[in-house]
Every structure is written in structure tokens, then in C-alpha cells.
Amino acid sequence: MVNEGGFGGFKNIAANPNFYVTNSGVTIVFDLYEYGPYAYGIPEFTYSFGQLLPQGSKPFTGQNE
């Protein structure tokens, strides 16, 4: 088996990914060693709500009103 290192072997996000939500968007977090060595750190990728939702959508309308 050849280890491509880094994210070369990445195919897709698991059915139940680790993530957290902030006011800025959603951050997907991969486990340490899942795709790279310890020296790479914990891989995190943040996507703003604007990148994830259709333009003009307001998913939080009606919250805390």
C-alpha cells in the first residue's frame, strides 16, 4: 500500500464529521494522524455560511425574536 501523505488520499468527509459552528461559519476538523503526521497539526477547514448556503438565504431568521 502506498501512503500518498498529506491529503492526497482524501476521498470524502465521513458520515458524521467532527465540526463546530461559530458566527462566521462551520469548521470541519479532522483527527490528528487521520491524513498526515503530527507535525502537520490538526487539519481544520472553515467555510463561511455564504459559501455553504444559497445566496440570499437567511437560515437563522426567527431565532431569538
Question: Nutshell version of this structure?
Answer:
With 65 residues, the chain is mainly β.
Shape call: elongated
How large is the count of helical segments?
1
Structural class, from secondary structure content? mainly beta
What does the main sheet amount to? 3 strands, antiparallel
Give helix % range: under 10%
Topology as H/E string? Answer: EEEH
Give the N-to-C terminal Cα separation: 56 Å
Beta-strand content estimate: 15-25%
Radius of gyration: 16 Å
Q: Order of strands across the widest beta sheet?
A: 1-2-3
Describe this structure in words.
- The protein is 6% helix and 22% strand.
- It has 65 residues and is mostly beta strands.
- It has a three-stranded antiparallel β-sheet.
- The chain is elongated and about 45 Å long.
- The chain starts with 17 loop residues before the first strand and ends in a 13-residue tail after the last helix.
- 0% of the residues are buried.
List the helices and strands and how they pair.
Layout: E1 18-21, E2 25-29, E3 44-48, H1 49-52
Antiparallel strand pairs: 1-2, 2-3
Features:
65 residues; mainly beta; three-stranded antiparallel beta sheet; 6% helix; 22% strand
